[in-house]
Design goal:
Length: about 550
Amino acid sequence: MNKILGIFGLLLFVCLFTTVMSDSFISEYNLYNITRWSALFGILSIGVAFVIITGGIDLSIGSVVGLVACLLPMLVTEYGVSSFWSVLIVIAVAGGIGLLHGLLITRLDLQPFVVTLCGLLFYRGLARWITDDNTLGFGQDYDDSLRLLAIGKPCSWATMLLLGGIILAVYGVWKLRRYRRQSLETAQPATAAAWISAWSTPVIGILLALVGSSRFWLGWESGPGTALFQMAGYQVRGLGIHVSAEGQMMPSTVMKYLGALLFVPTVSLFLYWGWASGHSGARRVRWPLVTVIVSSLCLFYCVWQLVPLYRSAVDDDVWQVGAVQVTGSLLKTLLMLIVFVVVGSVIGSIGWLISVAAAASPKAKALIPFLVTTAVMTLAGQTHLAATMVPMPMLVLIVLAIAASVFLNRTVYGRYLLALGRNEEAARYSGINTKRMIVVAYVLCGLAAGLGGVLFALDVNSVQPSGFGNFYELYAIAAAVLGGCSLRGGEGNILGVVIGAAVMRVLYNAINILGISTKLEFAIIGIVILAGAVVDVVVKRIVARRAVRAAEQLAGPTR
């Protein structure tokens, strides 16, 4: 949970900083592009996460994406293979590549780095050879059929909130009944923190469903929707629901006011429980709270004074700052750094306050999911996110993420992967077929790369074999590591990986929107990834030291 909150805080920081500096970040067009590309890279990141969890690595993902993206238009346009079978064939090829990697690593004891590095070179060269290095595409003939897998817009985010809220509320009620039955069977009264944690899931689900349903409060008209895909000669369409412009903006309004209405008492209760946990708790919560207040006031000042100055500055002008003359470009850079530090201070101080209050009181810790939900609702209500359409790759990512999360956390094979990553020799002695699980991990990575290659090719509609998919493996690996996957193996969380992929794309988008030179793109992304890794290590050490100190205090003085 701490890792997920940490990477989510980084995502929130980048989004908040970019929004403060430029209003175009929260436009519907930009939000749609961010979600679409985040979904595409999220699919690749989930695949490589399974390999990293086992302690391996896959450097060939970008080349596999390029090979699959070249094979698909060749099969469809040149050889006349049906769209359905073409997609299955290229994904099967990608799965076969993953199988080959797994067998080379397990049967010949080759290093994963060597195998996948050779694959990176071989598949890129193979793609250029079979296409004669010519650019491929689908043209305009498949815009209403096959390409809808990548460019389709089946529903709005408000509809997704409605469906997701209903599912979450039903799951929460089922979990609450199960928890109550277990409490009765054990005859042990549940603590207040346990009840808060049990009730938070259905309540959050109801809130999300309420926000999503508000889109239809002013009425709607139904009819045939946009085409989703074509199967066996028939075109499958979604249900078209048309609402007024006021109805489209209603979810944002409800999120803004409902989130603010619930956020204030939630924060008050959270702080009260953290403060009332004893003298040490009050003393520990005091300074983080002061830091949050001071940094928030600095942020308000930046929005009020510095940001308008930043937007009015012209690069070629000369500005008088006190007794010093500075160019407009230098002034904008200085203002950007100031706002960057202030926004980082706000997010960091809030994270410090949450961690201290959660450590002081179990009830405050149980309230964190509801606190985060109301805060995100309040911030998202300021944007057009609810009225933005959901790209089809996002639905694919959601389904894939749920299936991957269930496989990793709810099946014995997922536990085998985690055990294999922690200690391969111990896993082997415990009866786990480690070689088979390594092969499974690489096959899953290959299948995800194949699916990603299909969606990338359909989205771009112009595949250049020499460069398509370059550096995609680095983006996927970075997203997985940011999301909590340890390169040593044995650790990983699918939700964190998805958020990590979103961080990578939001960073790239922020660089373009803020007018930062694209020559610094990789430098900035590298610095952020390094900073995230350093913060993760530092936090781990602090937590370990606190645990040791608490254990020593509990044990008492030794003779």
